C-alpha cells in the first residue's frame, strides 16, 4: 500500500465504506507524480454522494453502489483492493458486477462506436 493510501482507507472506513479499490492510472501503470488517487468504495446501505465523503485533495471517489456499469465494471475487473472489511459482500459485488459488465460491454462499445460516427457526421449534440 502506498503511504498516502492508508489515511484514505481509514477515512473511507470512518465514513462507513465496507471495501474499496484503487483504479485508474495508478493501477494501470500510467500515473504521473501529480496524478490523482482514484478510489472506488462500496457502502451497501445508505451510500453517500461522493462529495459528502471527507477525503484529501487529490482523491477522486467513485461510489460503487451507484456507479454506472461501464465504470463499476472496469473497477471490478482492473481495480486493486485498498481494503476489504466485508469479504462476502465484496465477492458478491465483484462477481455480479464483472458478469454484468462482461455481458454488456459489447453493447456499450457498439453505442460508443455509433455515437462517434454520429459526431463525425456532425449530428446534433456533438
Task: Describe the structure concisely.
The protein has 126 residues and is α+β, with helices and mostly antiparallel strands.
Number of strands: 4
Alpha carbon gyration radius: 16 Å
Helical/strand content category: alpha+beta
Strand order of the largest sheet: 3-2-1-4
Helix content: 40-55%
Blueprint (SSEs and pairs):
Blueprint: H1 5-14, E1 19-23, H2 25-28, E2 37-42, E3 59-63, H3 69-78, E4 80-84, H4 87-120
Parallel strand pairs: 2-3
Antiparallel strand pairs: 1-2, 1-4
Describe the structure.
The chain is α+β, with helices and mostly antiparallel strands and 126 residues long. It has a single domain, classed as Beta Polymerase, domain 2 (2-Layer Sandwich). Helix content is 46%, strand content 17%. It contains four helices and four strands. The protein has helices at 5-14, 25-28, 69-78, 87-120, and strands at residues 19-23, 37-42, 59-63, 80-84. It has a four-stranded mixed β-sheet with strand order 3-2-1-4, with helices on both faces. 23% of the residues are buried. The model has no long low-confidence stretch (mean pLDDT 90).
Task: Note the main attributes of this structure.
126 residues, alpha+beta, 4-stranded mixed sheet, 4 helices, globular
Amino acid at each position: 500500500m502506498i503511504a498516502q493510501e492508508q489515511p484514505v482507507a481509514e477515512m473511507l472506513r470512518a465514513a462507513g465504506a465496507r471495501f474499496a479499490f484503487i483504479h485508474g492510472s495508478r493501477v494501470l501503470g500510467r500515473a504521473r507524480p501529480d496524478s490523482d488517487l482514484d478510489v472506488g468504495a462500496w457502502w451497501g446501505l445508505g451510500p453517500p454522494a461522493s462529495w459528502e465523503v471527507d477525503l484529501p485533495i487529490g482523491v477522486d471517489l467513485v461510489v460503487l453502489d451507484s456507479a454506472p456499469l461501464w465504470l463499476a465494471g472496469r473497477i471490478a475487473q482492473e481495480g486493486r483492493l485498498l481494503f476489504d472489511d466485508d469479504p462476502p459482500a465484496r465477492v458478491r459485488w465483484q462477481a455480479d458486477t464483472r458478469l454484468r459488465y462482461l455481458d454488456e460491454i459489447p453493447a456499450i462499445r457498439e453505442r460508443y462506436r455509433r455515437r462517434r460516427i454520429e459526431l463525425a457526421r456532425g449530428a446534433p449534440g456533438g
